[in-house]
Amino acid sequence: MRARISITLVGLLAALALAAMPASAATNVHRATLKGSASYPNVKGSAKAQRDNGVRELEAEIEHAKALAGSKVRFSVDGNAVGTATVNSLGKAQINRRGGAVPAVSTGSKINVRKLGGALVASGRFS
Predict the structure, then answer these.
(1) How many whole angstroms separate alpha carbon 45 and alpha carbon 61?
(2) 66 touches 115 (CB < 8 A)
(3) Which of 110, 107, 108 is closest to 28 using CA atoms?
């Protein structure tokens, strides 16, 4: 009986702690689907941006880009460069960034992936 009360009490305290969490500590997640450009119509990708406890994070990837294997691509959000990656032999490139280098992302923010030479590879908008 004592164990059951303890477990119930721990559950209630955990629920109260979550309910009391300030709004600034909450996670805001935005997602984008990336579609290939006219030059690279088979490329697809995705991106996820979130702000967790005030820290901005961005994960983005493209795939089906075998024609670009060995090439470097640059990921940018609303015109701000976020990171560069090399397309591997399977046609995939990805970045994972965290902290001040990640720009603020909101609904409608645009993400682009371009070859270092400037040609658009894929793009999308965050929801």
Answers:
(1) 5
(2) no
(3) 107
Cα–Cα distance list, 76 to 58, 91, 104 (Å): 11, 19, 12
The pLDDT tens digits for 104-123 are: 999 999 999 999 988 999 99
Closest CA to 111 of 120, 123, 101, 102: 123
Q: What's the token pair of residue 118?
A: 């400037």
Between CA 39 and CA 17 the distance in angstroms is 51
Does domain 23-125 fall into CATH 2.60.120.10?
no
pLDDT in tens, 47-75: 999 998 889 999 999 999 999 999 999 99
- This prediction has a pTM of 0.78
